[in-house]
Design goal:
Blueprint: E1 5-11, H1 18-26, E2 33-39, H2 46-50, E3 56-59, H3 69-72
Parallel strand pairs: 1-2, 2-3
Length: 73
């Protein structure tokens, strides 16, 4: 069964804000959801923070980065 809502975050060195943003999304009333973080080789611990939450985390190399690739991945 597909979730009602999918939320995708493309990140790169967002450790300062990623926790707050994920908490806000997770506090919403819609519980039938998936949250996906696609990270572009952050060096500040962004993925470490994101992995503390019930979200799917992926990391892609910078050489694969373009506008559409993280969305399609």
């Amino acid at each position: 069964m597909m979730p009602k809502v999918s939320v995708l975050f493309r990140t790169r060195d967002e450790a300062r804000t990623i926790g707050m943003v994920l908490e806000k999304v997770l506090s919403q009333s819609v519980t039938d959801r998936e949250i996906i973080v696609v990270d572009l080789e952050s060096t500040d611990g962004t993925l470490d923070i994101a992995r503390r939450y019930p979200v799917q985390c992926y990391q892609i190399p910078m050489q694969w980065h373009n506008y559409g690739f993280p969305l399609n991945y």
